[in-house]
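ugh ok fine here u go
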Amino acid sequence: MANTLAFADLGEGIGDATAVLRNNANSAGLGAAVPTCPGWTMLDLLTHQGMAHRWAAASLRHEQPRPDAEVEAEATAAADLLQWLDDGMVELLNALASAPEDLDLPFFLPEAPPARQAWARRQCHETTIHGVDAMAARLGRVPRPDELWFAPALARDGIDELLLGFAPRRRYNPKADAATSIAVVTDDGLGAWTIELTPEGCTARAGADADAPTRVSGSARAVYVGLWNRGEDVRVEGNPEPLQSFLQQLRVAW
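structure:
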């Protein structure tokens, strides 16, 4: 996971995605249902994102994050929830900017880059995917890849983090009854990966196996949101079952 966006680009990604959350919430209303997060309203989505920003900021400052219930109560009591969301983003960006490049802080994904970069990367993709959720709430459907705001390079980085970082974690670690593999390829030349599935678990690596029995392809943005269970604008060649099983098992919740 060493090949990531520049630190400044990750910070910009956090700011851009927070603006998407805010603008779509302002348009759709806090009571709008979020189809990509069943059971959630826009209010729940913004509260969750504001909590995540504050949790990460406290961790970066080597502080104990406040209890979730306390932060939820703060969000509920906020006179302006959108301003509360912005305040959490600013707190996070300030914590990232103040952190030294050689920050000594544990990080929970394997093969991660140095800690400051890894925390910035995680919060960039956390906020970006929830920006997609906010768009879905406004549109009443999952947005198409051409409607998304972020650059393909950010999508490539997010695919890499998901496949090499999240997928092998013990908490998810998708399995298959018999050994198989999935090739993941971006049409725009921004990367390719191979997912190996066995009865024991999952591994992933950069580079596509040409002999994989399942092949997933599409634009970097389509593959990114598709692997995060936020869209189906990808092409699947060969046996679709391993991909369906992989996505069902890799449903990341925070």
